[in-house]
Amino acid sequence: MTLAFDEPRIQEVVGALSRKMLINGEWVDAASGKTFDSINPATEEVLASVAHGEAEDADRAVRAAREAFEEGSPWRKMPHGQRGKVLHKLGDLILEHLEEFALLESLDNGKPYAVAKAADVPLAADLFHYMSGWTTKIEGNTIPVSAWDPDAYLAFTLREPTGVAAQIIPWNFPLLMAAWKVGPALAAGCTVVLKPAEQTPLSALLLGELAMRAGVPAGVFNIVTGFGDAGAALASHPDVDKVAFTGSTEVGREIVKAAAGNLKKVTLELGGKSPNVVYADADVDKAIAGSAHAIFFNQGECCVAGSRLYVEESIYDQVVEGVAEQARTIQVGNGLDPNTTMGPLVSQEQFDRVTGYIGSGKDDGAGVIGGDRVGDRGYFVAPTILTGTKEDMKAVQEEIFGPVVAAAPFNAEKDILPVANNTNYGLGAGVFTRDISKAFRTARRLRAGTVWVNTWNVFDATLPFGGYKESGWGREMGHAVFNNYMETKTVITDLS
């Protein structure tokens, strides 16, 4: 195996990175002095030891963010156009450090370096570039009153930043999820305390360094590295105005409970069990390639993974065999190997979870294509198809978050929609068909925040993203995201 980077280059990039927390513009140790290890999931070796933030550190970060938000602070006084230039500069700096970010994502998360370089990092930069343009376009309205003399009153609205935002992000797209959260919050004028996942803290630390270099004032963007207790301390903190969380539905419920004390605003981007409906009139080759990409992209560690594959009966065997053939061509290995197209799962915990669901599906009577451990070191699992699945199977109903798809046939359009919607989740869905009327009819009836037609995994900073049902509250990206980070104030003036 030939790696894209030799050990000296890896050590250079990781060694140049601060392992401390960013609070009030300074890199600081945890108050306790404790650290924790970040593990390379491809080798099971320690990458770096990082500051272990806890409740006291969360409090320090919140106090810094509060001070940076108050009237008279440099962030509040900064002209909106200048704020936009700072965010645009941060996007530029991300692209200037494309290689370093992609390397850190591959080392820390396991994903292929080539994928991080082509997708994760450029999309994160684009998010900041896009949000930078919104700083000068957040506007209120002048509204004529309806029950009073319209000439006697002037009524208008102002859009104002919510305040201090605690943002807790997952490990599957570490840099990109940080960008999705931090970009709009800063564009709105909020201040931020970011808590990255303990499995993947490294790219967030580089992002913090570049944010300061771009001109983000001290205290505006803070980073607390640590475990779930640090996130809980942020969610319950009485001086946090807003908490944004991406992760599992189970933890999302705990976030809601923790936020109840001061009734802080909450947005949640949670789990998914996305149905992928393939009709017999689909372009079969396109449907096969799209269905494989839907589930095997990013090791299946994707909240919108097309993990329930429903295929019209007349082409079911053809599509399943086609997806299986696509799976057999996937090269599972170290993300730094240029030949790798699927890296390891992120941790031993996730490896055990995914293999447990594969075993559960087999025990419940499903056929299993793939599903083996790859190698004897690292958290590698071969892409897997569970065939002949039933709706009551655990592997069909629960989110696996790995490269495992449950496949089943269906007979007619009228039959599949109730089945496709038979889930507590509603984050993503897809449909493959050449019939445009059927495509839109199906898209309208699928209960999901995003529906792809004849494609999958197309994201853009302009497009709102979020879920129905237990997949969350609120939307990321697009102009809709500013509902998460802004208050509307109504001002009425008597002109008489």
3D architecture notes:
This protein is of the alpha/beta class and 496 residues long. It has 2 domains: 7-270 and 471-490, Aldehyde Dehydrogenase, Chain A, domain 1; 275-460, Aldehyde Dehydrogenase, Chain A, domain 2. 38% of the residues lie in helices and 19% in strands. The chain has 16 helices and 19 strands. The strands form 5 sheets. A 7-stranded mixed sheet has the order 13-14-15-12-11-16-17, sandwiched between helices. A 6-stranded mixed sheet has the order 8-7-6-9-10-18, sandwiched between helices. Strand 6 (164-168), helix 7 and strand 7 (191-195) form a beta-alpha-beta unit. Helix 2 (55-69) packs across helix 9 (228-236), helix 6 (113-132) packs parallel to helix 7 (174-188) and helix 11 packs across helix 12 (316-329). It is globular, with a radius of gyration of 23 Å. The termini are far apart. The model has no long low-confidence stretch (mean pLDDT 97).
